[in-house]
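Dear Dr. L.,

I hope this message finds you well. Following up on our conversation about the binding site, I have prepared a predicted three-dimensional model of the protein together with S-adenosylmethionine. For your records, I am including the exact sequence and ligand specification that went into the calculation, followed by the structure tokens. Please feel free to forward this to your student if that is useful.
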Amino acid sequence: MAIGHRQNKGVGWTNGVLARYDLHLAFIYLPFFRLERSRMKFPSPQNPDDAEIDRVNPYRSLVETVSQHIVVNTAGRPTDDEVGGVRELLGQWQRVVCELGSGSGRHLIALAERDKDTLHIGMELRYKRAYRTIEKAMQLGLTNVFIFRADARYVQMLFSAASLDAVYINFPDPWDKRRWLKNRLIQSPFVAELGGLLRPGGFLSYKTDHADYFASAVAIMRSEPSFLEQRVTTDLLASPWGEESVPTEFELLFRAKGLPIHYALFERRAESSCADQKRI
Ligand SMILES: C[S@@+](CC[C@H](N)C(=O)[O-])C[C@H]1O[C@@H](n2cnc3c(N)ncnc32)[C@H](O)[C@@H]1O
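The resulting structure of the complex is given below.
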């Protein structure tokens, strides 16, 4: 999924990699997506593509070994069975938070360790990152971490209305070429969907290094009547919320380079005040 281009213009090997990592990932992952697509067309266990995908991406098989923590496992539309499994899981927990594009799970796991009574779900497409997250959770004995290896765009299919206490979006792929903007996760209809999935008083938290994406995402959140602005800063570490913030993997890389972290938190309004907001 991560086929974008970041705006980091530093020097040195790490900066160069960061500046172009999305482009590199395109070359590395495009063959996987082709294979994955063809596998979905012919889902027979004997499909020779399966062996090929395993050869190319060993994490596909590794994900199967932790399947008790992977409730959905598809890059396409989740099946009815998977949706049923999700509903069963969610029904067992009073509080649920979800991180979209959770990467290797650094942030999700830290939250889950702090609050073991809350179910923590990461939606993450990449096998390796999904596997790494569950591996860490199991090493720590956490039973409140699950991965939906699914496209975050299916979030509305997987959660019911007003079922989430928090949604985190950390360092989403910026897709910053004009012709790629349509691929950004944070778009107006999607933010409205998230508003519908959050409980009143729940919140949407967003962090990025990318100033343009931040400006457009905050404008979208401000215009969504179900959300109330609580925190917006273009320099998280210099803000009153810097200390309490749990860093993500990508955040640590950007921080190490001295780049400012942009952060916003919007609270889900109560139903009645949403209606008032729409009338204004
Ligand atoms: C730039 S990385 C950030 C990872 C992590 N949030 C962090 O801050 O360290 C973006 C992550 O989102 C995942 N991703 C991108 N598009 C996605 C989508 N539509 N659904 C689920 N995951 C997605 C990528 O695989 C990648 O792990």
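In brief: The pocket of S-adenosylmethionine is lined by residues 1-2, 101-103, 123-126, 129, 151-153, 170-173, 185, 248-251 (CB under 6 Å).

With kind regards,
A. P.
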